[in-house]
């Protein structure tokens, strides 16, 4: 009988996984249909075979890149958020709240404004350097006050640094009108007019990160325990945390290169995955990736519809989901339900 129970549990897991994967396909197809102009399935199908028509130009050059970029960005941010929450032991940790997004964006802005760098490969390295610098400063700042990974001081340090970097970004933009026009919409998060060349870098890194996290799932699970219990298993807690912080910063920085500093995906998607699949990383990593893709695709579709024919900033749309969710997490944490 227990054997049957395990089988039923496995069946439910794979059914949920298949359902979420199918829903992702539906959203990707919907991304081709909906926008300032809504196209029928017949028009979308013909757009791939006809040339020089309005529908074919819009769908092939604008919507197809968004259909691909949005889920990849969402997956990278979701996995980054999951790793940060596991490493820090803080359910409110995310790339945005721990300064990772702001650090990457600030370094990219400096490279673009003062040195004129536009190479995607170089900007990716610059973004990673910014993200890694920011998250390192956050942990150093938190520890300077005697904080541990489980304490709220870590989040406070992240929000403080993120606010400082956001202010610095605003000042840089205000002193350079050319940069302001070129990057203001990008800094609000967007997939508009982006080509897919960035995927050459992001997809291999994302694939590598997924494989590594699944292989090291037991180590990630051990970080959910207290430090003494984890050390009793013979694990080097400091090295594990350092490695996963590095990986999280890399994922978040590449997402910044693709879409700008997008908030809330790294916070919300991991929590939905944990509630849906449990705390085991073997089970919640696939769902975390899928929910990150779902949320980003839905938000991207909404940006095209809400202010049509204009486009709303991606981060502003995600805030309508993320802010209420953050309030819920804060209230739950206060009552001891979360964390």
Could you describe the 3D structure shown?
With 339 residues, this protein is an all-alpha fold. It has a single domain, classed as ABC transporter involved in vitamin B12 uptake, BtuC (Orthogonal Bundle), CATH 1.10.3470. It is 77% helix and 0% strand. It has 14 helices and no strands. It has helices at 2-33, 41-47, 54-88, 100-114, 120-144, 153-174, 177-187, 199-215, 217-222, 227-232, 237-259, 265-277, 281-306, 314-335. It is globular and about 65 Å long. The relative contact order is 0.16. Mean pLDDT is 83; it is low at 1-7.
What is the domain tally?
A: 1
- Under CATH, the homologous superfamily reads ABC transporter involved in vitamin B12 uptake, BtuC
Mean pLDDT: 83
**Count of strand segments:** 0
Helix-strand makeup class: mainly alpha
**Residue share in helices?**
over 70%
Through-space gap between termini: 34 Å
CATH architectural arrangement: Orthogonal Bundle
Q: Which term fits the overall shape? A: globular
Which residues form runs of ≥5 with pLDDT under 50?
A: 1-7
What's the CATH first level?
Mainly Alpha
The number of helical segments is 14
The name of the CATH topology is ABC transporter involved in vitamin B12 uptake, BtuC
The fraction of residues in strands falls at under 5%
- Radius of gyration equals 20 Å
Helix-strand topology string: HHHHHHHHHHHHHH
Biggest sheet character: none
